[in-house]
Each structure stands twice: as structure tokens, then as C-alpha cells.
Amino acid sequence: MKEGLELLNLLQKHDDQTSNIETTIKEIPITIKTLEEERDSKKNIIENVKIKRQENVKIREQLEKKILVIKEKITKYREQMNKSTTNKEYQGFIIEIKFEEDQISAVEEKIIQRMLEFDEIMDEIREREDDFNHIAADYNKRIKELNDHLEYNKSKLKEENSKKSELRKKIPQNLLKAYDNLFQKKAGKVISVVETEFCGICNIKIRPQLLNEIISTNNLYICENCGRILYKQIRAEEETGS
Ligand SMILES: [Zn+2]
Q: Which domains does the chain possess?
């Protein structure tokens, strides 16, 4: 029975290990997703400037349309001017046309300002793209490391599982059945390692008589409180080598 219990204790260790690996495997993709979302949200720093660029283009288009409208007006004035019959009328059109031409100059001035602003916006976009690329590269590096870690854990899990099934073959059927039963009921914690006089899992003090039996025999004992299999690993006993 002693060997059987030792094998069960070993099996518990393997089960603990696989459970840890499974948790890691489950958690890594969640972390990756969070990082990806965080990385992509940083793109806003570029998008905001691109909106500024769109607005700039739109305003310039409007200003150019305005010039076209004024030019049409001038053409009409010229036609009317050519048909004018009095000098006073003629002079009146000259003044109107001059006024409209000044308007065009003013609008052109505004367009030039917008063009200068456009160049600045383009510089800003390039700068922010550089910034984002740096930030993204950093994120991508972390994501790659996590993916590598995930792959490593997946292969480790495979390895653990095959080791475990080898081990299970060596364990007597009745013990294995008891273990598997408890495994379901006790959330994967079947073996309680007893190092002193307490149950290693629920920490209840083991009755002296029961403790004696655990130490002196190799029988299977169950914790009277939590129902787990008690596995003795009494330090003093190990040291004396009995
Ligand atoms: Zn217990």
C-alpha cells in the first residue's frame, strides 16, 4: 500500500501541475486580447490629426468655390459694364469689380494660410505615425512573447499529460478509482500531505491514535474532517530512515 500511496501523491503533484498549466493557457489569450485592444486604441492619436486634415481640405474647397462665385460675378459686371451707357454707370462697375477682386485676394490669402496649416498637419501625422509605430512595436513584442509562452505551455501540458497517463498505469485500480472519485468531489485536491499532526489541507488536528496509525502502518487513511487521503511525510520519521 505504501508504494500505491506514494504513486497517488505523485499523481496529485502531476494533477496540480497540469491544472496550473491549464490556468496559464486560459489566461494568456485574455492578456493578449487586452494588449491588442490597448495597442489599437493608441491609433486615436493618428486618427484625431487625420480628422484635422479632412477639415482643412474641406475648408479649402469651400474657399475655392467662393472664388469661383466671385469670378462669375465679375464676369457679369464686365458684361454689364460693356453695355453701360453713361460714364457714371461705367465707373460704378469699375468700383464693383475692384471690390470683388479685392475679395478674391482676401480669399486667396486664406487658402494660402490653410495650405501652410496643411503642411503642418502632414508633419504632425508623420510624427504621430512614428510614435504609434514605436508603441505598437513594443506591444507586438510583448504579444509575441506571450504567444511563445502559450506554445511552450501547450507542449508542456502535452508532456505532463503523457507522463500522467504513464503514472496512472502503475497505480492499483482500486486506489486510482478512489482518487478519481475524490478528485471530482474535492475540486482536484485529493491528497493531503501530513507533515506534523495536522491535515495538510483543512488543517484540522489529527487524533493522536489515527496519527500513530498513519505513521506506523501503510494503510490508506482519510481525513475525518475534509475526507481527503492522508499522505504522511513526517519529517522526523524520514530523518531516522524508518
Ligand atoms: Zn482534512
A: 32-167 (1.10.287.1490), 172-240 (no CATH)
